[in-house]
Design brief:
Helices cover 46% and strands 13% of the residues. It is of the alpha+beta class. The chain has a five-stranded antiparallel β-sheet, with helices on both faces.
Length: 254
Amino acid sequence: MSSVNQVALAKNYSTSWAPPLLPWGPVGPFDAPPPRDPDDALWRTALSAVDANARENALAAVWEDLVRGQLRVWCGTMTRDRVHLIAHVNRDHPSVNRNDASILVRVLCGDPQKVIASDLGIATSTASGRYLRALHQLDLARRTLSLPLVLAAQSSAGIARVPSAQSAVFKQRGQLALIVTVPRPTTARMTTLTRAEQQVAQCLIEGDSREQIARKRRTSAHTVARQFSSIFTTLRVGGRYGLIRHAAELLCFQ
């Protein structure tokens, strides 16, 4: 059953499952600035939906619904053990061109664009253009792609398996939303990295920028850049998406 089929079921939830309405003003919750604080009322409601009615391991269905235009990413946050994403449901956006979507999935699986272009018999610039077009169609071009979203793409390709991934539909002021949640990675499984590199790898996987990692670790962005290079060289991956794929293969999301 796809996550959108869950939406149909959500409309018939009994009144015993009725999350409190958000204290927004006259506009709907998805017109307001996206909150990141997990203590925000929206996140409390979303996380309570996971506790009450979570569906396990639904990442591939989430990705398919996104590509079909039935979901749109809105905001994300992180708690002690998990990374969370909220998407709008039933916004009636156009679906993404399947050829563009397939290239996007391969990029999110860590494949270099030159390799993708060679496999498809097209120019690298063409592959890059289709990748960017898919990002724009999904309203993702100007944001860091969240970990649940990358894992959803990799799951749809049969690469990442995250059995403890969860999703749940919830409703606010007549608007349906979907929360997707995955475990934070256990990068200690990356035994070929130093302890410091494992910590940097975790931050990168979770979506932190070089500058954010530097602030967290009270070091320079230049030092973090060197650590990135060492991590990628040691693990033989080409960037964040390849690192996420490697983490999934090492069962870092169990």
